[in-house]
Specification:
CATH architecture: 3-Layer(aba) Sandwich
CATH superfamily: Response regulator
Helix content: 40-55%
Structural class: alpha/beta
Number of helices: 6
CATH topology: Rossmann fold
Radius of gyration: 15 Å
Oligomer: single chain
Length: 163
């Protein structure tokens, strides 16, 4: 019997930086075990160009990435989600769609690189957001998901977001 593939959605308001970084990294590292998606409550419609640079420099494909609405993830025919992580504080406080299948949810807030005004600091902010997300995703991938009950799993993913 093969191990399940877990569907993970990363949410942010604009879906242009943090959620995109998380989607790309988990798809890169979790091949065969995880399938990642990203979406936003108010998508900007474009991926931050600095995000694409960071991914390219890290050897991670940006193919198929785009800024899209979270409504697509809750629509009929969308993949059933096992996990939903908010990566920005605004999305965490918004009323999310009802996700079919009741996925495990957690808040993994990361500072918004798009909020940085200093031109010299923008790239550093994207790189720092990526570093934080990489660490959290690496910890998440180490969890014995199938060996944990739902409450324990929810607690463990919430703890990851506090690191």
């Amino acid at each position: 019997m093969s191990d399940p593939v877990y569907n993970v959605l990363f949410l942010c308001t604009g879906n242009s930086a943090r959620s995109i970084l998380a989607e790309a990294y988990l798809n890169h590292r979790g091949q065969g075990r995880f399938r990642a998606y990203s979406a936003g409550s108010h998508p900007t419609g474009q991926v931050n160009p600095l995000v694409l640079q960071v991914l390219r420099r890290s050897g991670i494909s940006a193919r198929g990435l785009g800024s899209k609405s979270w409504d697509e993830s809750a629509a009929p025919g969308a993949p059933q989600l096992d996990f939903v992580f908010t990566v920005c504080d605004r999305a965490a406080g918004e009323l999310c769609p009802v996700w079919p299948g009741q996925p495990v949810t957690a808040h993994w807030g990361v500072p918004d690189p798009a909020a940085v005004q200093d031109e010299g600091g923008k790239m550093r902010a994207v790189q720092e957001a990526f570093r934080i997300l990489q660490r959290r995703i690496d910890l998440f991938m180490c969890l014995p998901i199938s060996g944990l009950d739902r409450l324990s799993l929810r607690q463990r993913v919430a703890e990851i977001g506090k690191r």
